[in-house]
Amino acid sequence: MRKLLVTGGAGFIGSNFVHHVIDHTDDHVTVLDKLTYAGNLASLEGLPTDRFRFVQGDIADPRVVDELFADVDAVVHYAAESHNDNSLHDPRPFLDTNIIGTYTLLEAARRHGRRLHHISTDEVYGDLELDDPARFTETTPYNPSSPYSSTKAGSDLLVRAWVRSFGVQATISNCSNNYGPYQHVEKFIPRQITNVARGTRPKLYGAGENVRDWIHADDHSSAVLTILDRGAIGETYLIGADGEKSNKDVVELILTLMGRPADAYDHVTDRAGHDLRYAIDSTKLRTELGWAPRYPDFEAGLAATIEWYLSHEPWWAPAKDATEAFYAAKGQ
Ligand code: NAD
Ligand code: DAU
Questions:
Q1: Which part of the chain is the NAD(P)-binding domain (predicted)?
Q2: Nearest atom, ligand 2, residue 186 CA
Q3: Which is the closest atom of ligand 2 to the Cα of 123?
Q4: Of the candidates 277, 284, 288, 244, which has an alpha carbon nearest to the alpha carbon of residue 139?
Q5: Residues with catalytic roles
Q6: Domain locations in the chain as residue ranges
Q7: pLDDT tens digits, 71-118
């Protein structure tokens, strides 16, 4: 039995990972989460108390971090400010958590000699043209666009420096856009599903031609466990499931799956600096570590995600009004 510390485990992808670990291993999990607006303890309900515990705290607080690192075998670091639109409105928390928080964890990993896996994003590579045959690989130069992605890029570079300079036993993964249960209603797919559920028209930024490379959150979890188990120290692995779709196609599919006319949505003010296209080449992870996605059918995964939101309104309803008020103030 391994003891894992999962930072940000009350958020979307972190909570999916905790459920995945409990279901597929005999590991013990401690979650460290600050419970910002994005953290939700309801996402961790029902976990076995003999294998799971929750600690509320800030990853940028060396006292709490030090105490927890002393008692675990490995750390999986999900905690972050994660939403681009928020980073355009108020960048400061992104620096505090994504940069200083990651630095605090790296220093603890160094002091305690702990294995650390750092969760990052494909957004560190910037964006691609719609007709570019290229996809991101582990050697694509960093070129982040937003306050969010630049702080994630900065955190990745800190991890690389702590591996090389201090011998910290770390790996990094950069994943594409996740969808699935427990995602905050500020994000694209849950926002549109819950809009339709409430009788509101979905909101598409600009023309909606932007492309994202969708992966089910459970496939992200299995990839992270694979890297934790078999990844080479100091290496970066890109995680993706060949799920490129335009935002317009995704909105139209949501409307169709929910029994509405496919064109029943509004175009709204575009995001400043909006990245055009992300695309992941995950050949290294697949060939070197033998990983493959288990949910490659996006339409089936989206239908299951819609069902999850329709049957979990008490989970998402408390955040919906404040989220829509934030967007409405920006004409989105
Ligand atoms: P999220 O916003 O849903 O969850 C973030 C969690 O971190 C929340 O529970 C929050 O309370 C916690 N947190 C924030 N600041 C903290 C702090 N200072 N100390 C402790 N906890 C803190 O985010 P998500 O979408 O689940 O993303 C998780 C990670 O995965 C992030 O590192 C993100 O960059 C990365 N990622 C996300 C995606 C995606 O599609 N959402 C894709 C690739 C990578
Ligand atoms: O690529 C990985 C990244 O994916 C992660 O690093 C981020 O943490 C995660 O939030 C996500 O970033 P995006 O900015 O791509 O996700 P978001 O859900 O905010 O938006 C997806 C696309 O949909 C993007 O092109 C903007 C557009 N959009 C978004 C919202 C909220 C709309 O058209 N309408 C909307 O209402």
A1: 5-300
A2: 31
A3: 1
A4: 284
A5: 122-123, 148
A6: 3-179+216-239
A7: 999 999 999 999 999 999 999 999 999 999 999 999 999 999 999 999
